[in-house]
Amino acid sequence: MECYYTSDSCDSDNREQKTLDLSHRLLDGEAITSELDIIINDKNCAANFETILLYNNRIKVLELSSLRYLYLGGNNIVNIPKDIWKLSSLRILSIAGNKITDVPESVGALKTLQALVLSDNQIEQLPASIANLHQLRSLLIHKNKLKTLPTQIIKLKCLTELSLRDNPLVVRFVSDMAIQPPSLLELAGRTIKLHEVPVRPGDVPLTVIKYLQSANCCVNPKCKGVFFDNHVEHIKFVDFCGRYRIPLLQYLCSSKCITGSWENRETERNPPTHMMQKVLLG
């Protein structure tokens, strides 16, 4: 075990921070938990660590007490535990270089979080609860499988660093439409919803009623259309707090919606090149 002290210049109270370094030891979660238990019970090494470094071990599952800084990069972690919200004092959560595919909604409950590092994983989407991280300044999510970002992310007014490089959404700067001819069922369902044709139980099979209830509204505010299984995928750049714009994936009912005047107002604006590089390329 290596214990050392380091000062955290970002802290307003300027207190000396106590750091426990267990990195590069090829320990699995059970071994590290056992070692932490020994440290906690050691009266000569007080259990008031605020930072624990666990880089490059063999961790798959790990449960920790409340911390302010947690670094778990370069392990074999597959899932972020749903009870991560219990780390209520966490300011930095770094889990880069793992095998994570999903980020739980509970991450949004980390109200004091200032930096979230999820780069170099296999994440396909972020939860909408990310918008609840009002103190978040740095969001590093490069080298993942993200095709879109939650629209709620524009609410992160404190965010100054957003790294997106090496994600599918960065490659798809322009409109990417996947248009397939709609089925007769799709066309009939759209007509019923658009014209508000009354459909009562007994008139049609229950499966048809459930199908009609699954209708999705077109994101074009000037369109009253709906879609079911057939839709148009479209990448749109959205203003990010007036500073720069980020690409978001939208689902439209028709390719005609893309060329509407509501979309033209957005695409006519060209963000500064250096700002776009800062967001997309980190």
From TrEMBL:
Write down the Pfam families for this protein, in alphabetical order.
Answer: LRR_14
Q: Which SUPFAM superfamilies match?
A: L domain-like (SSF52058)
Q: Which Gene3D superfamilies match?
A: Ribonuclease Inhibitor (3.80.10.10)
Q: Which UniProt keywords apply?
A: Leucine-rich repeat, Repeat
The keyword Protease belongs to this UniProt entry's keyword annotation: no
Is the keyword Hydrolase in the record? no
Q: Which PANTHER family match?
A: LEUCINE RICH REPEAT-CONTAINING DOMAIN PROTEIN, PTHR48051
Q: What is this protein called?
A: Disease resistance R13L4/SHOC-2-like LRR domain-containing protein
Tell me what organism the protein belongs to. Answer: Pieris brassicae (White butterfly)
